[in-house]
Structure formats: structure tokens, C-alpha cells
Write a structure and sequence with these properties.
Rossmann fold; Arc Repressor Mutant, subunit A; about 60% helix; two-stranded antiparallel sheet; about 600 residues; single chain
Amino acid sequence: MKLLGEEASRTADGRPRVALLHGPEGMGTSTLAMHWGSQEAQRYPDGQLYVDLRGGSTSTALDASAALRRLLGQLGVPDDEIPPAAEGRIEYFRRVVSNRRLLVVIDHAHSAAQLRPLITSAPGLFTLVVSRHPLPGLDALRIPVGPLADKDARRLLTEIAGKPAIAAARAMLPPVLARCGGSPYALRAAALRLSSSLPAPHLPEASATRENEPVRTAVEDTYRLLDADAARVYRLMSLRAWPAITPAAAAHATRTDGRGAARILAELADRQLLEHTDDGRFRYRPAVRRHAEQTAVREDGIATCAGAVSRTVEGYLHLALRAAQGALPESWRVPSRPGPGEVEYTDRGEALTALAAESGNLVEAMHAADEFGDHDTVMDLGRALWPLQLKAGHHDELLSALQLASSTATARKPGTRAAGALKAQLAHSFTELRRYEEAEAQALAAAADERAAGHVRGHASAVEFLGLLRLRQWRFDEAYARFDEAGEIYDAIGPDDEGAADLPRAGALLERHRGRALRGMGRHQEAREHLEGALRWFRESGEAYNSARVLTDLAETCLDVQDHAAALPLVDEAIAKLAGERAEYHLVHLRAMRERCLSRFPG
């Protein structure tokens, strides 16, 4: 505590103030960081930030870009204002914190490379890192956290279990303290047993070799006190590194009802076999999950374990398809949903929020399905991510999952609609991340797949996307030519052909994009004519999202010619339409446009 205070008080000299608490798992490093922060809250009037890098292993570690999204969100930055690429997030974070007095706690760090983008030399910032290891290469004050001495361990046991329980267990205390090895986690688990008058653990002789592994020993002791149902949930939910465990997932894995699963998860958290997350769900400590996974393989067998994972993946697939359809029901890119499920979404914003909340678990489900050779599920889950790309701006977080889904489609179903759709999604994220060459390659491949599949609607859409890419590159003449090419492909769809019913909507979208290209060429009157035509169709069809997007384009066209009075009502209507969509990715731009209008047109 004293060393942390000294580093936090060090005179600002251009070097980042960084301290690293490191020690074995279960030794209380995270709790020490939280305790110091609460004791020193007055130092940081602008608040304290926390991010868990999940660095128990390289497979679970959070990358810096995803961590920056979470930190910026805690600073009040709307999702749509957070830059899509890591470089932009680093610059934005440093700018936002430059004049603030903040404590940033970075928990469960895995490597110095993971940390460097999160560290800044802002004079009012103190970064407190927690790790199991000293992290070579990190320029920080290193503070090792070792085991509690026996007197402190005994005091902790007494505070938790109570003096009567400790007095009654006086004869047991020396072996209990020895088994706990000074680990606060192990001591708390032992205190729960002592205060509940539970029997002392009777372990086989082989367990004596674990005396130097206090966390594992404590977990083993607690596990043996679980009833059969709780023990089964404990084991079968550990088989994948799910970022957050929900009652629904536990119910799928163990074939139990959701209410019973929720009760068991709460019991496991009470017994310290699970931890609560900030959003009310659960997770394992890394060492606890290793114990649970090994125990599952030993006690349940490979077939049972594989079945539990498969059922969990299936549950996430159904959730993803329902949420994706609820968030974007008009899109042909989203796979059709399965039959009625536990939750049906009628509100688009609610569906998008649910999809975003489970995105980490959906990505993990994709990797599980890939390992099981369930290629259709990999592709369906990938396609279900489309609303998160389009409406929520999740690109870097989903990129590896989209690459997996696209490569799966290329290998298993080349020249199909699924392959074309996934390559188009990947091209979209590459575009947003400004990786234009990769975006163009994927868009061309998407067009080729859709053409080979005979999917005229998809082929036209892929060509249209190439035009959108040209818009992002400010190559407006080429963009317009691509839109004309897409229009010619649409014209080949006859009244009785597949996709005919979607032609009016596709035509309206194409009109919008032509208007954007004409605006880029400075042909503002022609641009307005195309955009107004598109707006009429979307208004009549009741599509709030696309109506808002066209209104935004029209407002920008007005602002190009300094017509602020005409732009303001268009911006206000667009904001009103997007408010119910929770499309934060676009709202921040509209708010900035509104401020611009008001500054020039205060009436």
C-alpha cells in the first residue's frame, strides 16, 4: 500500500505512472488493487476505470483494442463514437484522459505487449496493473504479493468464520493453515467450511502432492461438498472458455431448467467456485476452470463432455439467429431463425443489445463448432453477426470470427450463397478498418461466389458493395459506375424470379448510393433528386433505419451548399427515427451535424 502511494504521488516527469502488483493466483492481487483504489478515491475526482484482460492464457486474453473499447465506454463515449480500428482508439483514449485525474486498474494482464497501448503518460493518470507474473518488458514499479503470514492468515479466518467457529476447530487449525498456504482465496474457502460446520475434507493420498497448490486444494475441498446437480453444472460449464456464463447456457449444457440452473450458479458463486461479473453473470477463475475441466474429463468422459458443449453451442446458435432476425428482420443476409425459442424479440434495439451482450460467447461458440467439424454452425453464427457490424460498429472484435466463418465457407462450400454473404461481411469490416485492399479482394470474391451460385440478388449486392468501397476511397466516378453495373444486374431479375419481391427495396438503396456518389462529384441537385426518391420509398415502407440514413445524406448535401436551415429538420427527423433503433454507431455523427446547424442557424 505504501509503495503504491509513492508511485501514485511521483512528480509528473513525462514517464507514465505505472505499478504492477504480481503474485500467484489466489494471492489477493486483484483485491489489493481494488482496496487501494477505494482507500485513495479522493486522489481521482474524475473516477476509476477497470478492465479485465482475462490473461489466464493466450486463448482467453483480451486484446488491447477490445480493452480500449471498454475503457472508452466507461468514460461515457458512445459506441458509435469509438473508432473502429485500434490505432484510432489509442489516440482517442489518450486525448480523452489527457486532462483528467483517473485511476486505471488493468486486471489479469498477460503480457507487456497487451498492456502498452493502454498506458499513457497523462499527468493525472495512475495505471495499476495486476498479473500473475512480473511481465518482462513493462516499464513499471513491480510489487510482489506473497502469501499471508500465519498470524494474518489466522486473523482472516477468524474475521470470516467467527471466533466461536475458530475456537471449536482449534485442533484443526494447523493443518488447515498449512493446506491454505497463505492464500486468501484458500483461506476464505476454508472459513466458509468452518463457519458452516462442514466436515473436514477426506482426500485420497494423492492429494497430498498438492500442498503447494493452495487454490487447487481449496477448490478440491469445496467441490467434494457439492451435491450431484451442482457438481455437474460446475464441471460441464468449464469445457470452453466462455467469457460469461448464463443460466440459459448452463441449462443447455446440463439439460436442466433455467430456474434450477440459475440457483446452482448462484450457489457455486457463494462457494467461490464461480465469480460474479459486472453484468450479473458468472465466470471461472483460471485455476478453478482448469480443475473443473480436468474433473469433467475424468468423471464424465469425452462423449458426455462433447455433448454438453454441443448443446451449449446449439443454444447460442438459436439465440444468435433470433436476436439477429429481431435486430434486422428485413435483411436477406441474416439466416432464417429456427422454431420458437425461449426469447422472441419484437424490439429491434432490445435484440441488438442481446446480440452485443453475447458476442464474446458467440465467438467462442464458433471456435467450438469449428473444432467439432460443425461447419454449418460456424457459418450461421458468422452470418448472425451482421447486425453487430452494420448497426453497432463491432469490427475489430469480430474480425477473427468473420475470417474463420469466411475461410470455412471457402473450404467447405465454395461458390455458394453462404460463402458470398460471409465474404461480403468480411469486406465490410475490412472497409471500416480502412484495410481497403483486403476489402476489395473479399468483395470481388463475394461477387464471384454469388454469381457462381446463381444468386442474382447477392451478385448485384456484392458489386454494389464495390461501389461503396470506392465511395470510401473518394473515387466517386468509379463508385457511380459500379452502382450502374449493379442496377443492370438487378434488371435481369424477372417478376417471377427469386428476389423479385425485394427489388423495390434494392432499387431504393441503389438510388441512395447513386445520390452519395453524385454528391461526391459536386453534382448536388442531381444528388438530392436521387436521395429524395430513395427517401420516399423508405418512408412509405416504414423502414426507420434506412430512412434515417437517407435523411443524413440529404442533410449533408444541404450543408455542402451552406443551407443550414434546410439541413436541421432533416437531422432532427433522422435522430428521432434512430432513437428507437439503438443505432449508436450513427447517432453521434447526427448530433455533431445538429450542433453545426445550430451554430449557423440558431433560430
